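User: Assemble these into one structure.

Assistant: Restating your components, then the assembled model:
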Amino acid sequence: MGKCEQCIIKQFNSLKALTKDELVRISGCKTSKKIKKGEIIFEEGEVLNGVYCVRDGICKLSKLSENGKDQIVKMVVKGQLLGQRSLISEESSNLQATALNDMEVCFIPKSEIFADLQKNSKFSLEVLKDMAHDLRDSDDIIVNMAQKSVRQRLAETLIYIHDSFGTNPDGTLSVLLSREDYANIVGTATESAIRVLSQFKKEGTISTVGKYIKIENLAALKRIE
Amino acid sequence: MGKCEQCIIKQFNSLKALTKDELVRISGCKTSKKIKKGEIIFEEGEVLNGVYCVRDGICKLSKLSENGKDQIVKMVVKGQLLGQRSLISEESSNLQATALNDMEVCFIPKSEIFADLQKNSKFSLEVLKDMAHDLRDSDDIIVNMAQKSVRQRLAETLIYIHDSFGTNPDGTLSVLLSREDYANIVGTATESAIRVLSQFKKEGTISTVGKYIKIENLAALKRIE
DNA sequence: AATAAAACATGACATATATCATATTAAAAT
DNA sequence: ATTTTAATATGATATATGTCATGTTTTATT
C-alpha cells in the first residue's frame, strides 16, 4: 500500500496542508480501494465514516428528484476529496456518488480527519476554502438552471468538461458520459439532450468519435445564447 | 455600542464558538451599522474586508444573469453571518446583498475573523458546519430548479419563507417580497410568478392582507405537484 | 453468431412558460 | 390634490421543452 507522505495526489486537495507526521498517521489507517465503472460509492442517506481521496478516475454526485430523475450536481475527479461535506456536517449524505469510469480511491476514517481539523488550523482553512469554492460553483449552477436555456446549459457543460477534465490525444473529451448523464447534468429530458447534441453536430460545433464527443468549434459553443 | 460578549445574536451563528476574550477583542473593533430597506450592502465583484453579523432584518443575496434577471440565491436573516464565503475564499463577492427591510448589522474586520480561525479550531469547525449546511441547501435548490415546475417551486418558496422566517401576529408571512422578488427566487418571469400566486389565491391556498401573503392551506401547498 | 437489451435518434404532439400588450391599482412625487 | 411612476394583474400568442411513440444502432448476453 502506498504512503500518503509520498503520494502526489494530495498536492491537489486540502490534505496538502497536513504535516508529515499527520500524513504518516493517516497512511497507517487509510484503506485503498478499486471501484469499477458504474459502481455506487455511497448512496443518498448513507452515513459516511470518512472521506475518499480520489487517486484516479471520476465520479458523479447526484440526487434523486421526486419526479424520478437523478439530477447530477457535481463531478469529482482525480485529486479531489469526496464526501467531505457530509462528513463535516455529521449528517447522512444528501447525494449519491457513482463511478463514471474505473476508479482508485483511498478511504480516510472520520476520526483522523476530525483530529486534524482540531489540531491543524491550516488544514481547516484549506477545507474551508475548498467548500467556499464549491459553494460559489453551486451558486453559479443555480443561476444557470434558473435563467438559461437547455441549449446554453448543454453548451456550457461541454465547455466545462473540456476545461476541467481535459481531452484525449485525439481531442475528444476524456470523460465519457451517456446522453442520459448529459440530460441529468443539464436538468432536461434525455430526448432533449440528444436533440440538442444532434443539433450541435449538425451545426459543426461538435463531432463524435465512437461514443466520444469532440469540440470542433469552441468559440461557437461559447457564443451560444 | 453594544458588547459582543453580551450580545444574544451570536448564539445563532458560529461566533458562539469564540471565547470571552476573543469576543471582547472583536467587540473593540467591530462597527455597527443601520441599513435601510432597499439599500445594497455589497455588490457583485466587491472585495469584502470582513463579515456582517445580522442583528436585525433580512437581506437577499442575488446574482445578475446574462439575460438581465437578478437571480436570488439565498436570504440571510437576523442571527446569521453575511459574507463569510467570499471572505474565506479571499475572492471578490460573487453575489450582491440587498436589504429587504431595515437592518442592523455589525461589521467584523477580516483580520479578526482570520485570527480566530487560526487559533480557535472550535470556531473553524462551526464555520465549516455552517458552510456545509449552505452547500446542502444549494444542492437542493439546484435539483428543484432543474426538476420542478414553477408552480411547485413557488409553493415551496412560500413554505420555506413561512417555516424559516416566521409570520406576523395575523398569520401573514413576516417577510415582505415583491412579485418580482418571488420571480427571482423561483427563476421565472415576473408575470408567471404573479399568475401562479393569483392562481393560489383563487384556489384558496393563500390570501393577501394588503401586500402581505398569508398561507391559508399549508397542506394543500405541500401537496402541489 | 444469434438474440436480447441498452443506448441513441427522431417525429408528432402536448404543455409549461416566456413575451408582448394593455389594464388596473397602489405608491411616490410634485 | 394631482400627476407621475411603479407594482400588480390578465389576455393573447409564441416558443421551448416534455412526453409518447417508434425506429435504428450499439453493446451485452447466451
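The mean pLDDT of chain B is 96.
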